[in-house]
Amino acid sequence: MARRQKVLGAAGIAVLAGAALAACGPKPHAASVSQIPPFLQTPVAKRTAAASAATVEHGRKLYDYNCAQCHGAAGDGNGFGAPFLVPAPRDFTAAAYKFRTTESGALPTDQDLFRIISRGANGTGMPPWQYLLTEEERWALVDYVKTFSPRFANGRAPAVLPLPAPPGKRADPARGKALYVEMQCAKCHGPEGRGDGPSALTLADYKGRHINSRDFTTPGAFRTGWTEAEIVRTFETGLNGTPMPSYTGAMNAQEEYDLAAYVMSLAGPGSGNQKRSVARSMSGLGAPQRVIALREHAWKYEPSEIRIRAGEVVQIDFSATDNGLGAGHGFALDGLDQQVFINGAMVGAPQSVTFKIDRRGRYNFYCSTQCSTRELHPRMNGVLVVE
């Protein structure tokens, strides 16, 4: 079969962007914050052809055109786009798959692979291919991706892990909060669930790369969807290749649903002054003399020009009106971007930075979120005038 070229026009980009956005609604505890179904609810199309050499070859052609740029021609996660992506693309040769319906350490099922290819992963560079590839093509990709690891050829088909059904007793966030302490979740995820626990800076994946613990206050960052069932599934399966373990057997069904209810209750801006580990301010400045509200709207800054006085302590309160395809938006100042920056401000979770500039002049500010630099967000720039 000849290679099918996948070219996105403006309409296609709009569809993909709308699908990939993990935008929070006005109600912080809505059933979903994504326009695509969560992982467990993603439809799995019936196969029309069994896996064969022909489907693998079909998948190879599709992979080379659509996937190798990030995941690498050899499937090792080292595509030319990989250095610009946080988190890094999946290394298929290691077969350490996070999103599964199987037990900890096990391979995913074919259905699991089809689901994640179809819906993508919120807050990452992995898009929902259901809008770009047919069902047959996605099944062909499943067959080809499996060739990168001998574990698929040498092992039996993985068994689906039975997930606990919702208990008859209503889930109680108060009981869940006590379990959050008992299970020591705050060590990684922090006391307010912001991903800033005492162990957060020491966490690493199976390749030794630093890995962030989940920030529960930003539901759009939940990779497979912000739902009770997805959270309970993660408790049961764990996340292969990461420090997140499986809690199978450690909690009963009621406890898991109570803890899930508490985790979901953390969504939103939370308490305090929005200080987060991903935002950096100048230290030792004391209380701000001026507080300036800055927001992102339609991927532009409002206002795009800010005027301050030399030597005054300024606090920027930055909020976002969309989630920037799951990565959020940021703020940094040219010349001071190692001292003052915001990374990944999301809808409903603003961030703040405090700084002082003694030298008069004009300073450009721009979006600093991960790979969303000024080249990718060309309209997200403004000028800070120090008078």
Chain-wise SSE layout:
Elements: H1 10-20, H2 53-66, H3 68-71, H4 110-119, H5 135-145, H6 150-154, H7 173-182, H8 186-189, H9 228-237, H10 253-265, E1 290-297, E2 300-302, E3 305-308, E4 313-320, E5 329-333, E6 341-345, E7 351-356, E8 361-366, E9 381-386
Parallel strand pairs: 1-4, 3-9
Antiparallel strand pairs: 1-2, 4-7, 5-6, 5-8, 8-9
Helix pairs in contact: 2-5, 4-5, 7-10, 9-10
Distance between the termini: 65 Å
Radius of gyration: 22 Å
Helix content: 10-25%
- Which stretches of 5+ consecutive residues score pLDDT under 50? 1-33, 269-277, 371-375
Number of strands: 9
CATH architecture of the largest domain: Orthogonal Bundle
Number of H/I helices:
10
Mean pLDDT metric = 85
Specify the CATH class of the largest domain: Mainly Alpha
Strand order within the widest beta sheet: 3-9-8-5-6
What is the SS-derived class? alpha+beta
Shape: globular
